[in-house]
Design brief:
- It is a single chain.
- The mean pLDDT is about 95.
- With about 400 residues, the protein is of the alpha/beta class.
- It starts with 8 loop residues before the first strand and ends with a helix.
- The strands form three sheets. Strands 2-8-7-6-5-3-4 form a seven-stranded mixed β-sheet, with helices on both faces. Strands 9-10-12 form a three-stranded antiparallel β-sheet. A two-stranded parallel ribbon has the order 1-11.
- Helix 4 links the parallel strand 3 and strand 4.
- It folds into two domains: about 140 residues, Aspartate Aminotransferase, domain 1 (Alpha-Beta Complex), CATH 3.90.1150; about 240 residues, 3-Layer(aba) Sandwich (Aspartate Aminotransferase, domain 2).
């Protein structure tokens, strides 16, 4: 086993990312001297905060390929997903739209699957489509599902466990041909792949700040203006954010989100190249040190920083217990308290036993070559030790 590092090696960047120090610096004044309420536009401090919020909104829009007035600021992607899916469904029902079918995918984030499931109690028909073994949705499967009049389709752009990139432009086009609204959770895609929500004909899209080296507790919902997409808000209040998300805006967090988006736009290409090199190096070393290790889902249609690997012998929990200085995960952070195997891996066709031997490794902006050196050596040594211990018990 390699010597322990001075501090934990963090390779769980799909769960969350370190807040970039430049983002922290941008936020700090808005916690202290510039503390005005952005809705108090009758005085100078309020107007200054409002200006900062609008500048951040413009930076979010620029990264997404959208207009600033199409960005609704939220507490994160979970809230944005709920507003998009439930808001669209309830508005349509209230206007007498007869369509009740809502289509999504088996590998979606829990907050999307649960939002769609919740609407069944309100008379909607949830339809959950399978994915292929590579994690991609077959366009023909979607097209077939849309032969029944459909209100909304929701497909995430990048999967939070496997890193698989769906063809959002192509899938959105199929949905639009059928007359359905198209929503995409872009929490894992934002800042990692180029986005063009306007060009892709997406109607609704959800963003999370803490996945892109911004702060936790802030995100955004893209709501297309032309043609206009109508939603019912989830809760009542002062009518902020075009009436879709009432409540005083968190200026410091929004400024941080804007700065994170600015940095992503400027540095995405360089980050992607460096991160992909580190990922490929780690996979090469793991394959050399652990013969039989398997890579799950598509290798090509995958973001640069993700590895989802199944080990030939040792369980994921045994490996993690043996390596307290290595921060990796068994899957989605939102489901990490659950003991049962990942539903995403099951959807790819993995058995429960294979899923129990699977780790998600997330490489990011602050991952170093030394981190990769440690992870490769430590995982290889731990797998050998855990496998030997298992054989001894047997």
């Amino acid at each position: 086993m390699p010597p322990s590092p001075n501090q934990p090696v963090y390779l769980d960047n799909q769960a969350t990312t370190r807040c970039d120090p430049r983002v922290v610096q941008a936020m700090l004044p808005w916690f202290s001297e510039d503390y005005g309420n952005p809705h108090s536009v009758e005085h100078a401090m309020g107007r200054k905060a409002e200006t900062a919020v609008e500048a951040a909104r413009a930076r979010v829009a620029a990264l997404l390929g959208a207009e600033p007035r199409e960005i609704v600021l939220t507490s994160g992607a979970t809230e944005a997903n709920n507003i998009a899916i439930k808001g669209a469904a309830r508005f349509a029902a209230g206007t007498g739209d007869p369509r009740r079918r809502i289509v999504t995918v088996a590998t979606e984030h829990k907050c999307v699957l649960e939002s769609v499931a919740d609407l069944a109690a309100e008379g909607f028909e949830p339809v959950v489509l399978p994915v292929m073994a590579d994690g991609l949705l077959d366009p023909e499967v979607l097209r077939q599902a849309l032969t029944v009049p459909t209100l909304l389709v929701s497909v995430m752009a990048v999967n939070n466990e496997t890193g698989v990139i769906q063809d959002i432009a192509g899938l959105a086009a199929i949905a639009k041909e059928a007359g359905a609204l198209f929503h995409t959770d872009i929490a894992q895609a934002t800042g990692k792949i180029p986005l063009d929500l306007t060009g892709w004909k997406v109607d609704l899209a959800s963003v999370s700040g803490h996945k892109i080296y911004g702060p936790k507790g802030v995100g955004a919902l893209f709501v297309r203006r032309r043609p206009r997409v109508r939603l019912l808000p989830l809760f009542s209040g002062g009518g902020q954010e075009r009436g879709l998300r009432s409540g005083t805006l968190a200026t410091p967090l929004i400024v941080g989100l804007g700065e994170a988006c600015r940095l992503a736009a400027a540095e995405m290409a360089a980050d992607t190249d460096r991160i992909a090199t580190l990922r490929d190096d780690l996979l090469k070393r793991l394959r050399a040190g652990i013969p039989g290790i398997g890579l799950n889902a598509s290798k090509q249609a995958r973001i640069a920083g993700n590895l989802n690997v199944t080990f030939p012998a040792a369980s994921a929990f045994d490996l993690m217990a043996a390596l307290p200085d290595l921060c990796v995960s068994t899957g989605s952070a939102c489901s990490s308290a659950e003991v049962e195997p990942s539903y995403v891996l099951r959807a790819l066709g993995l058995s429960d036993q294979q899923a129990s031997r699977t780790l998600r490794i997330g490489i990011g902006r602050f991952t170093s070559a030394a981190d990769i050196d440690y992870a490769a050596a430590a995982l290889s040594a731990a797998h050998a030790a855990c496998s030997a211990a298992t054989e001894t018990k047997a």
